[in-house]
Design goal:
CATH class of the largest domain: Mainly Beta
Protein name: OB-fold nucleic acid binding domain protein
Number of strands: 11
Distance between the termini: 129 Å
CATH topology of the largest domain: OB fold (Dihydrolipoamide Acetyltransferase, E2P)
Low-confidence stretches: 1-20, 75-93, 97-101, 103-112, 145-175
Helix content: 25-40%
Radius of gyration: 37 Å
Strand order of the largest sheet: 1-4-9-11-5-10
Length: about 300
């Protein structure tokens, strides 16, 4: 499925068919919740992943920007290929990460041991065969370039499925964005593919290609909400810390009380042991004296 399936002129709509934009305004991260794409499933192509940008300092936030709209979740149509396969009809490239369930030490792994990214629910990916057109739904996150490692051909590795372009991107660019698999849907026929492309085109033209604007009052309100939430988080953390300190102090005092009780009991038992030792020593001494006296009497009688 090439880009010509999207535009009549064979070029991506995102770059060629848009007028020049004015200078964009990028808002602070506390404004992201007001973005029309934040927290929503955004329908894009695999090739569109490489038109996304991140802001300096937000590399680990899991938030990407298209125009100036912030988003985390995407729905991406793709043709699944084996690792290192490059024949996918110019659809673009995306890396799909399959999460694996933690193996149990008491029983062998089940046939379907993959889990979803958001809820860790079991998911069966056996229908994801090479050259299968599929709508992939997942949470987009950024992989730092410094952490890039080539994918393994071994099917047991976590990142074992990817979608490659006819002119593949440089290896260091391939895994810039990773789509953590949450669910997928097979596109069985052309009608389902066109339906998805229409949905994606509508979202592109109505939302993704339009700059996101906030008034100063909205920014101020969002900042107040963020500050209030940060204050509540600090209070919860302080209460939790105080509660933890109180529990630790109670535990320490309980240990001290138990140690004092044990010491007192030991001292009391030590006094009893000493008294018992003295009583036994006296009884033994008296017994030895009687025994020696009896022996001396028996000796006198024998002579």
């Amino acid at each position: 499925m090439g880009s010509s399936a999207l535009t009549k002129h064979g070029a991506p709509l995102l770059d060629t068919h848009l007028p020049s934009r004015p200078q964009l305004t990028f808002y602070p991260s506390y404004c992201y919740r007001a973005s029309p794409t934040y927290g929503a499933w955004v329908k894009i192509r695999a090739a569109d992943l490489y038109r996304l940008t991140t802001r300096a300092g937000d590399d680990n936030s899991g938030v990407t920007l298209q125009v100036n709209c912030a988003k985390r979740k995407t729905v991406t149509p793709a043709v699944q290929q084996e690792v290192h396969s490059e024949d996918d009809d110019k659809i673009g490239f995306a890396a799909v990460a399959h999460q694996y369930a933690t193996p149990s030490t008491t029983r062998p792994l089940a046939t379907s041991h993959h889990v979803t990214a958001s809820t860790s629910s079991p998911i069966d990916i056996s229908s994801l065969q090479p050259c299968t057109r599929v709508k992939v739904k997942g949470i987009l996150y950024t992989l730092p370039i410094s952490k890039y490692t080539p994918p393994s051909i071994n099917r047991t590795e976590a990142m074992n499925v990817m979608i490659l372009p006819s002119n593949p991107l440089p290896p260091r660019e391939r895994f810039r964005y990773i789509l953590n698999l949450d669910r997928f849907q097979i596109l069985p026929d052309l009608a389902s593919e066109l339906r998805f492309w229409n949905e994606r085109t509508s979202m592109l033209t109505e939302i993704l290609c339009l700059p996101w604007h906030l008034t100063q009052e909205e920014v101020r309100s969002l900042k107040e909400v963020a500050e209030e939430e940060a204050y509540k988080r600090q209070n919860r953390a302080a209460r939790l810390s105080a509660s933890q300190r109180l529990r630790a102090e109670r535990a320490r005092r309980k240990v001290e009380r138990d140690e004092a009780k044990l010491r007192k009991r030991w001292l009391k038992e030590e006094v009893l042991r000493k008294a018992e030792d003295e009583r036994v020593r006296r009884l033994n001494q008296a017994f030895q004296e009687r025994l020696m006296s009896q022996r001396s009497r028996n000796g006198s009688a024998g002579r």
